[in-house]
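Minimal example, chain plus flavin-adenine dinucleotide.
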Amino acid sequence: MAGVVIVGNGMAGATVAATLRTKGYEGPIVLIGDEPHVPYQRPPLSKAQLLQDGDPQLVRPEAFWADKDIELVAGVRVEAIDRAAHEVRLADGRALAYEHLVLATGARNRELPGAESALGLRTVEDSRALRARLGAGRRLVVVGGGFIGLEVAAAAHTLGTDVTVVEALDRVMSRVVSPEMSDFFEGLHAEAGVKILTGRRVESIEEGAVTLDGDQRLEADVVVVGVGVVPNVELAAAAGLDVADGIVVDERLLTSDPAISAVGDCAHYPCAITGRSQRLESIQNATDHARAVATRIAGEGEPYAAVPWFWSDQLGRKLQIAGVAADGAESVLRGDPGDGGFSIFRFADGALVAVESVDAMADHLAARKLLSNGASTSVTPQQVADPSVSLKELAAAVA
Ligand SMILES: Cc1cc2nc3c(=O)[nH]c(=O)nc-3n(C[C@H](O)[C@H](O)[C@H](O)COP(=O)(O)OP(=O)(O)OC[C@H]3O[C@@H](n4cnc5c(N)ncnc54)[C@H](O)[C@@H]3O)c2cc1C
């Protein structure tokens, strides 16, 4: 009874399984994950679920999997892949045969040496443990001013916690947004009363305190470390598949073994939009990879060419990013940051490469169209800066 075996039941793995059925695949599907849960969403863990504890938001209703004849194996780790035998070996001793194997093993939090007393945030258990320690009268230090660090800071602040964020680089979210957008969010947090220390290195983290370079000591009832993730590649590497910063796949998301695909946070893929090989950590990336692979397995695949996009919610503002910009891209403002929604359009070598929008859904949607239909060189900085130019019409004109 071979069929499709999927390792990892996060957003990517779960979406592969669900899409296989939507696309008419009738063979056996087994979805295996080491977390003891039905597939759930991670984004609320640093947002709504920190503010208001509750059950995790599921990727599909619990009954969906049995209804669609998808076998869920939860709380069990896949320990090895036997590529010659087309089998995976599970920690409970079982061996499962596959016709096609999908690796959706995701990523895990990067750890800081000596920070054992600090909390991380990746799973529903992490979110509950953190929430239990937030509230009025508590002091939180967040190490890392990326998306997750800032979302935790925002939610903790809303719960009345005294929050300090320490970021080693000279601005927050620097890996993914423009300097202008970093400034905007630093201002937003500062205005709310969240302290953000940029360009500061953490020397040590003990129970109850974080010591920074220059010996500044920050007292803390709880410390959260959010300094990025590392892809879970060990299973693939042990099976002899190519790995780099992720499991290396081609434009069809196939690994170096044509019977094995990789999707989501763990996959290092050639991006048709940016022209670079990259690994992304987002729901869009997980779901679009998953749909592309399921469609291919079901018999109609095309090379993967989705526009990357991402969102973050902080202190009542919604940030949405389409595309990927490298350091040094030119920033062009549309709208007024002091007055509602606005966007920052990023250009490199005369081409639009990314758009960062705050509470500007129409800009974001137009940007995704502009970036996906090859229009990136037919829009100019002058056009996007001019609020009288309709982005929707521009996108439609070049479709
Ligand atoms: C707190 C938080 C907030 C986020 N907010 C946003 C957001 O606002 N917007 C956005 O776009 N993205 C957000 N993300 C990122 C997004 O959630 C991830 O990019 C996405 O969930 C990745 O899905 P995945 O299925 O590839 O990997 P994962 O979700 O990591 O799932 C992989 C699963 O595979 C399991 N696994 C690994 N190895 C094995 C093995 N050998 N055997 C069995 N199981 C295994 C892992 O334990 C895990 O359960 C957020 C992430 C976090 C943690």
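DSSP finds eleven helices and 26 strands in the chain. The pocket of flavin-adenine dinucleotide is lined by residues 7-8, 10-13, 32-35, 42-43, 45-46, 77-78, 104-107, 121-122, 148, 232, 235, 264-265, 281-284, 286, 310-312 (CB under 6 Å).
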